[in-house]
Amino acid sequence: MTRPAAPHGLPTRLAAVLQAALQAPGNQARFRAAGLMQPRRFGLERPTLVSNWQAQFAQLPPLEKAAVRQAPGQYLAGVADIIYRGSTSGSRSRSYTFFANRAWNEQRLRSRQDFLNWWGIDPAVPIVNLASRLMPGREADWAIVGPVNLEFIESLRAHLANRPWVGRGYPSRLCEIASLLPPSLPGVKAVICTGELLFPHQRELLEQRFQAPVINEYGCHEAAVRGFTCPEFGRIHLDEQSCFLEIVDGALVTTDLWNETMPLVRYQCGDRVHCHETPCPCGRPGLTVQVLGRSEDRIDTRQGLKMPGELALPTLPGLLHYRLQRQSPTLVAAQIQVDNSLSAPTTAVAEASLQTWVNQTLGNHTLRTTHHAAVASPAVPSEEWSDHRWLTTLTQQSLSGWLATSAQPTGEARPLALMLRALLAPRVIGMELPKVIQQQLMALTSSDAAADPAVEAMKVRILLLACSCISDRSISQDIYTQAVARQQKLATAPDSALQLDRLIPALHLPTSMLSPTWAIAAIEETWPLDPLHVQHLLAAFEVALQRRSPTQRSPALRRLRPPLAVLVGDLSFWAANLTTAHLHHWSELLQAPPNLPRPLTAAASAPAFLASWLSWRQALIHEPLTAGEPFAALTAAAGSDAEKARLQVERGYFDILRHVPLDPQEWLPIIDTHAADLTAAPPARPASLTPWLPIVSALVQPLYQQGQPELAYRCLLAATLTSRQQSAFERLTTQFNQKQSVLVDLCPQLPPLT
Amino acid sequence: MPQAGLNRIGDCHHGDPEAITKSSENCYNFLCLGLVWVNLIAKCRSIVCWSLSLVSLLRDWKRVAVYCVGIIFSLVGIKSVSAHTEQFSDTSETPSVTTAAAVAQAEPPVCQYDWQEPQAYARIITQEDPLRIRATPGGRIIGAVPKGWAVVILEVNNTGDWTKITSHFGDPGEFGFGSAPSFREGWVASRYLAALGDFCEKPSLDMAAVQLMTGPDAQQYTVQEDWLQMGDRIAQTPRQS
Fold first, then answer.
1. In this structure, which of A259, A623, B40, B174 has its CB flanked by the most CB atoms within 10 Å?
2. Structural domain containing residue B225
3. What is d(CA A221, CA A224) in angstroms, rounded to the nearest whole number?
4. Rounded to two decimals, what is the model's pTM?
5. ipTM for this prediction
6. What's the number of domains chain B is made of?
């Protein structure tokens, strides 16, 4: 069935989007062939939409997702107003990044809240994303990620405040969670299922265990397709204000009405839907559909090939939930979660019923059953390390190496390890100060001194790190005060590692708290960095940027974007020769006016390049337009390849601050030539772009204007830095929280391609 | 899916003993279509070299005939299996890395989904060029995998010198992937693999890489590097003199 393209006339915004889409090279041949593009007499004029575009629109062949994925830059229609960066879901592990403008993002937020309002979910009600790759979206929202087991449930319960909340996630993961839930979970207002097909047996389980209504949310992020079930009739209503929707031979074809940065016109998002013939009796607007599944997901049944959404998976007493995978023409694998509250014979009956359903629907198959409980239980016990081994790993080897294991110290360092894991690899994402961390912090600050001085010193270091991981200034200050008090009670004199940790919060705490600390810091001190210091500095950079609006930062850091890249790039370069003067400089960059008592310059014995760099940066902060002389001094001091590379970075910053346009033909080769010299990594790894990101970011516009959208897209793709929480989210969800197919056929007999 | 945006354009850098020059990789695309004759151009150092080699080839009527036959074969989808090894340049540069041998022996836990077990992954870490893939340990060359790719470890031979690899999606067959058309399931030298660990999904962290230029020598850059790994990398910065 084909839904007519214009049931109520084409939306007025469509013309603007088509006009924008014409500017993207990837669209032009298609538009020209469809008669949508004015012929260009000299080939140089700006492409223009024909006047009768309404008549020609339906001639435009749909755009396949694979085409965009292959050359996404070709679909960039502009780079001036990019405010949003998103990724396709990558249902088949093939995602791409898209970009959108401010109006698109505003419409996205408005549309979503409109749907939530149907269910009485106001912006203050947090939506908690559970075990999914869905990042928290609104200010009140948060996520909890990682393996679904009893620890996950405990953590969820511990973080729930005594107020209404909404759970959200993939139905299959939510069912795993539901099967582990205690009889009553407080305050659940609703459960939103998204990302996978929702089957009736899943809905029943979720409604029963969460004791809340289940909402089916449908969406295709990059195409701005959004749909929610209505509370009255449970039909999925699609938002036609955001997207122009067509159904062509059962496939959803969409045109985003607000994205003029990367407009996708007549885009096949890959889903198949069944459109209801009649309007929903609830009276709400919007096309209503039943989602049938991905176009490539076909199930070979006795009745021929079917979409997963066309098959009614049964609710079977004794089975909480299950998933089926047809692995060969004779074998179906089933992963089942039995209801342990029922007797064994009931479960056996349920399994037999499942076998019957498989035989009746898919044909005769052997059913190989795996019990989900066995799969989901935590299989790997914690590896036990001595306190000494743990301390050595942290300070001399690798933090990521330790966190990738389940190893825990066995002695009095154990609570420290738990705290550090919660800080650096949090399972709760988007919450200001998770309760668990709060409780652990209180326990740590009030705990007795450890018998082992090394463990006690580490305790102080971790408390100091914690104060740089918390956005709330007053809590952060309290922790700092208590950490310093603990440090002063240490039996041994604090070593330089601890002294440095005490200085780092200068990047975000008030001057009054830090004067005594600065008094002990010698200017000429060079601080040896260990992995924990680096994490502390990275966290301090982040929190300092969070706490201060751009206008509170130095003018230099306001113009160099992303600002975190400047700081991390500096750290990366100076890590092996970090001095107190560096900390002072970063503090000045981060705060205008500076919050430290006196400007620090390099010690007399400092290497020439360091001394010149500090002078140059002082000039950059205070008088960027007339910093030619210190820059010349820096140029003269640059000797090694790394210093010469650094010089290029500083020159780029200088040009950006002086509003000198950067020429991509000059800068791309410079970056390619010098980037490896600034990358502290084995040569086999790809180089890091971090210090170059402000320059890369500044090249986007000129590249696009010069007709190089693919390179502009690459620069856009590269010109971002991740964060502590984003990284933790990626790390855990990639491993544990992917989407799952509830019904999949690995060997359908597809008709031959014609 | 393999890394997006890694458009590999042939160049003629000499690389590691088991690494093919990038021009060889291009040549290999032809190989996959049945063109054995391209061995002469494998050592070219630039596009100019390519052109010269082509001219040289076309002077030889026998090679012209082979070329034409190859084109016909490629049109009917016949894949040549007569690749041989002389076309690839070898140098003595060898990286010092952890081999993947230990990874394959680790006993993995069961994945939390999709009935899989975690698979052992390793990163290709040749210095400059794609890495040769062979039919057997030290045997006939059947393909190439680009530097920087994460591959699945299938098995390691008795000496540990050779590792059988495949892609996250299994054997890609005769067409490989868009950005690695020569990728095949086969054996590679273990010393050019850096163990990544066991994953249920293709390890994406630190995987995303991008090139800012399209030329043959374009540098690869990490995008959104993992925060912890970035910290460890910075902490390992050697002290400057």
1. A259
2. 101-235
3. 5
4. 0.79
5. 0.90
6. 1
